[in-house]
Amino acid sequence: MKLDMAIEELHRSENHLVTVLTSMSDKHKADHEVFYVTRDMAKWSREHVADLARIGRDFGLDLDPEASEDPGLLSAMKQRASVLTGRRSAPGLLLLADLRHLYREAAGTSVDWELLAQGAQGAKEQELLDIAERCHPESLRITRWANAHLKVTSPQVLAS
Amino acid sequence: MGRIDRIAEPWGSRTPYGPGETWPTRVDSYLADGLTEDDVDRWVQSATILHSNGDALDIAVKDERIVGVRGREVDRVNHGRLGPKDLFGWQANHSPDRLTKPLIRRKGKLVETDWDTAMDAVAGRAKELLEEQGPSAISFYTTGQLFLEEYYTLGLIAHGGIGTNHVDGNTRLCTATAAAALKETFACDGQPGSYTDIDHADVIALYGHNMAETQTVLWTRVLDRLAGPNPPKVICVDPRETPVARAATVHLAPRPGTNVMLMNALIHEIIENGWIDREYVEAHTVGFAELEKQMKGYTPELAAEVCDVPAEQIREAARILGQAERLLSTVLQGFYQAHQASAAAVSVNNINVIRGMLGKPGCGILQMNGQPTAENTREAGADGDLPAFRNWENDEHIADLARVWNIDPMQIPHYSPPTHIMQQLRYMEEGSIRFLYVTATNPAVSLPELRRIREILAQDRLFLVVQDIFLSETAQLADVVLPAATWGEKTGTFTNVDRTVHISDKAVEPPGEAKADLDILIDFAHRMGLEDKDGAPLVKWSDAEGAFEGWKECSRGRPCDYTGMSYDKLRGGSGIQWPCNDEHPDGTERIYEDGRFWAHPDYCESYGRDMITGAPVEETEYKAMNPTGRAVLKAAEYIGPHELPSQQYPFQLMTGRTLYHFHTRTKTGRAPQLNAAAPEVWVEMAAGDAADRGFTEGDLLRITTPRGRVEARLRVSGIRPGALFLPFHYGYWDTEDGSQPKKKRDGRAANELTLTDWDPVSKQPIFKTAAAAVERISKAKGQVSAAPTTTGSAPVTGSVPPTTGGDAALAEELVTTGDRR
């Protein structure tokens, strides 16, 4: 039985996703939709971290239910920097890079959920399967958003 | 025949009627200077231009001047009635400060010039940028007040000629969510309701829709039903005690930012109690199982806590909605300009769909517009959508459009959704959009976070063209100002909320050298040298009727089919509802009869979006989910608003309208009766909140948010506790400050305070949840605020003299008992 490993790994990657989303949000404060939507999506990952910590106990794991985040000061500095550079066009390229990064991270996490769901079915762990079925679509939605936002943003950044 | 003060009585006299009966006619008219109908030289057909209702009227002309208006008795929309803004607003056409010559910026100042110089400057800069950077440098921002022909021509120039994706209208602020919500549920724009549904409905539910003020004549129709036998029950969702709330059977006043929670609880109750048309859901929808699952947790008790509305009230409202036999639902800015706008508006659709209340008399949805011609911005492709509800993700739709326009499909940008205005501003801010052409709107007052907007528009690196009838706050920032003709001075058509198309004929000449917007746009196209693939001019018409004929071809076979209409057919009688074609030569009153939608993957306008992130749904996903084109039931989870009250900013600020004004008052502020009815900005607060702070009616307050400060006198009104309301109409053109508040001085425009945030689905900015603080600058000393007493701003304390218009506001009313139509 290696489900505990899968849970632990997913806990790590969802945790990481929270950091990627909130850090991206702070860095692009001047891009209002990016700023708010990434924050809203980070709430999903935070809930996933808590869900995984809770179910992890059944598998002998002691995982932190709270996602680790940027300290407030660092977050505020990133936001300030974003506002200060908001009049330049270089952040456009940075945004593309960050979206691409988010896409890959979210896609990886989403695949991990799929693995966990498969494992839960194999082991007939109903509660674990329920969590996977609830969380997997949300990580897919993050992937889709990153992809969609890349499509919207790239023509302007690359063709101007 | 009677004469009544239509400022004091905005809805006029009652003509009660019962369910299924025809609404009696009542012809309203107003002629200036004591003239009578005998003095009028001629009457010219038109419709109203200061709201979205589309009330038909005739313009009275004497000595080549407009002297008044009279409602058209034969028209299906208003049966002769007019609202206060229609009766008095036309006087603004004659203002001495109309723009009469083009202006160009020289040495930092706008100076008069001739058309050739102005247009060469505009086209010259656009060509230069096209050469240097390409179409991504150029953007267009239009309005909800031009005519169909102008929007279609603008869309053709922008999409087909210049090839830019940066096209939007200020309809983004008023009707973007209406369109988005319809695209989510029905995969296509198009209003699934008719105004005659009011004649039949037994329940009318108004969600964030203060119809009494935004569509006065439509509300008159409701009032006449309420005064007649077997009146409908009315449900009102609004944090303010509006005239609608006062007439309601149940009034729910949720906390700002919690609409989705409330809607989810209503749907939860309806499903829980089995008030569902199972057969209809089975035959005509997809997504019900998921909706049922997602709504499980949203109990009235949970919603009661989040929304601060009693659970029993939510249950009662759900019972009325659930047991309605003919349910009409209407939605407006209280939902559209609020947090999770599209999700909340889609939930309204969900209720009608799961109850099978569509496509039958009395059973409809009116996702409303704010502006008179907003519907045409959507249809004709001037809000960025492609013309005639074509789908930018469907290559065959693009190919078909390219055929109509005789251009290469590659020329039409369709690699991503159109760039909405808030994103355009972002591109201007970071410097990649360098040319903005604004037609008939005033972003320097109407967009959120004005200090930011002004900074963006005033940049040297941005070439700003403003085409308008007055030197608005925005025009004052422009590089070139083009003087336009307005309603009554040009011919064209426009379409109201319930798909009724009216013609508006030219009654008089525009002042000075002002020109019709259509003529200016065509001139621009020619100076740009825009051509089709055979080298012929891209814009193939030279007048409004030619543009209309061009549009008809573009609309052929699409949901908004105009091919059965003509200018001749639109003249003389009533307006006509689209689709109007060979099959339906007299138009179509109700769409979506028997569950027949425009949602088939090959035909639909949109595959939808994620309700939280706004990411577009891909074609393959949509095809898998909805292969046969049914209505789509979409659930959305509630998420809290992004800016919450804090100790420093304890209130939630909402901005909105008042009955007597339109948009940024450029017209209504110049009509004496309307201006006098609401001459100055005010702020509303609940009685308990005011008492806690020792504030009373008329105190001068300063309202502060992290973005700015506004000064306004207090009206203690029936608004819910914890919320503030500011009307957004007031800017600076009629103050000594000109285009913006002088440094260090408090502002007057509500948008000094609003935040830059929008619904990710519809991209509509949020105007209903800004955290705000208030302090008192000075006590009233007997003065009262300038807020009208006849409307949502009615006082609940103290003695405030009622709003009246006096002799100047006396208008005729002719009630005809029989149906003379």
From TrEMBL, chain A:
Superkingdom field: Bacteria
InterPro entries listed in its UniProt record: Ferritin-like
Name of this protein: Uncharacterized protein
Source organism per UniProt: Blastococcus colisei
From TrEMBL, chain B:
Source organism, top-level taxon: Bacteria
Keywords: 4Fe-4S, Iron, Iron-sulfur, Metal-binding, Molybdenum, Nitrate assimilation, Oxidoreductase
Compositional bias per record (Polar residues), positions renumbered to this chain: 786-802
Pfam family, one: Molybdopterin
Phylogenetic lineage: Bacteria, Bacillati, Actinomycetota, Actinomycetes, Geodermatophilales
CC cofactor: [4Fe-4S] cluster; Mo-bis(molybdopterin guanine dinucleotide)
Domain 4Fe-4S Mo/W bis-MGD-type: 41-97
InterPro entries in the cross-refs: Asp_de-COase-like_dom_sf (IPR009010), CT_Nitrate-R-NapA-like (IPR041957), MoPterin_dinucl-bd_dom (IPR006657), Mopterin_OxRdtase (IPR006656), Mopterin_OxRdtase_4Fe-4S_dom (IPR006963), Mopterin_OxRdtase_prok_CS (IPR006655), Prok_molybdopt-oxidoreductase (IPR050123)
Similarity section: Belongs to the prokaryotic molybdopterin-containing oxidoreductase family. NasA/NapA/NarB subfamily.
Entry annotated with the keyword NAD: no
GO biological process: nitrate assimilation
Sections of the chain in a coiled coil: none
Start and end residues of each stretch annotated as Disordered: 1-23, 779-821
Sample GO molecular function, one term: metal ion binding
Name of the protein described by the UniProt record: Molybdopterin dinucleotide binding protein
